[in-house]
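Reviewers of the previous submission asked for a worked example of the structure-prediction workflow described in the proposal, so we include one complete record here. The input consisted solely of the amino acid sequence. No template or homolog information was supplied to the procedure at any stage.
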Amino acid sequence: MSKRVGVLGGMGPMATADFFRKLIEETPAQRDQDHLPVVIYSVPQMPSRDKAITQGGESPFPQMLAGLHALKQQRADFVAIPCNTAHFWYEDLCREGGIPILHIVDAVCDELSHARSIEGPIGLLSTEATLLSRIYHDRLLQRGIELIVNTPEERDKFINPGIELVKCGRLEEAGIAVQRAVACLLERGAKKLILGCTELPVALEAIDSPSKENCIDATRALARASVSRALA
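From that input alone, the workflow returned the following structure tokens.
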């Protein structure tokens, strides 16, 4: 029998919905009963992860921990968190949550290991908080992978507005903004791009971006890792 997947979501809601859709898409199923049992805890009122890291704002950790406890009470066997920045608190959540948690960057690393040989640097599109916390840099550095990122000006002009546009439902506008950030990294020689914020794939899919073929979608990578864990 497959394991029950817990989803600590709401960060943000559209990204959580996108993860659930991709979890379904990645599950080998012929009928309803073949799909995974899933429990989703989606509470968007958690404090901003970005402000907590970059501005010393209120920590979302207590609310995230409460979410883990709720998922544990619903008999989830493990948890996926479709929010990259939330993994800043990954070790603390694992220690105090009392339930196994997949790491989104480990899922991305698994995707990279299955990719054909990549020559040159890999581009990372993400929030300021994800960059500051080195969620991707430290794990990928252990694998000898070089990362390049957008300039602060590009993040302020394209990535941050793109993320906020997804959160308020203006998906096509978001896609246009994020596509420009993608183009900047491709022009600098990135052969592959990591969409290191779970709003970014939503944006690019809204405009059916031709650059999707060059991108590793961290949300889909986490969905695949979740299916693998649940069916193991």
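The two ends are 9 Å apart (CA to CA). We consider this example representative of the routine output the project will generate in years two and three.
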